[in-house]
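Quick log. Single chain, no ligands specified.
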Amino acid sequence: MKITEIPVLKSCMIYRISYSRRPTTAVPGRNFASLSFRTSGTTRIRGEDCDLTSGPNSLTYVPAGYPYRTDSSEEGEMIVMHFFAEESCGGLPATVPVEFPKATYNLFETAARRYTAKGCDLVLMSMAYQILAEASSIFCPKQPIPPRMKRCKQYMDENITDPLLRIRDLAAMCETSEVWFRREFEKYYGATPLEYIKKKRIETAKLLLQTGLYTVTEVAFRAGFESSSYFSAEFRRMEGMSPSEFEAKQG
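-> predicted structure:
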């Protein structure tokens, strides 16, 4: 996948697909690109100059206009995003296993629910850009990250809503000092651990607010904040509006 710059989207569709075992299926070149997260099953994708296998917990990209064939040897399920861009992001079909599948699945699943409920509105488009940004970092990693730092970030992602998540405990997991951990984390992920945690919690809170199912206080605690006042202050700082104002804009 050659998305080194996130494409400008015109529209997109995101939905879940279940499929059965089937022989070779020809797919003509389409006027949209696709990006899918496969949750189960394995499919072989073959084109004129590609032959790859998409398995569970992998992201698969197919550019617009590219004809290919698929062979599914078993039943499976995936969440797929078909997107129309102002310019093709090009490249060849590609697939890559996702290192932290739970977080990626949550992005796709939440977007699919939004598309089912509201269609392609502005909220869905913002989710689509978030998915593309995540895919870009997965397909085009900037630099090798030490395994112990990856383990710590994975733990952070899987426990991001736990209010007891502490920097000192993460540093201990890496068997290093807090100072070293903060410096190295920012080096590889572009933000301090605390900034990263707050950003991810705010992203989680935004998804919860978009559902319209929870009060602001409920959202605060579900997202991992220890108080609703602190949550509201951080939300306003990062988003330029209060949680209630953000929720009202979702319609």
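Strands lie at 9-19, 22-27, 33-40, 43-47, 50-54, 58-62, 68-72, 76-85, 94-97.
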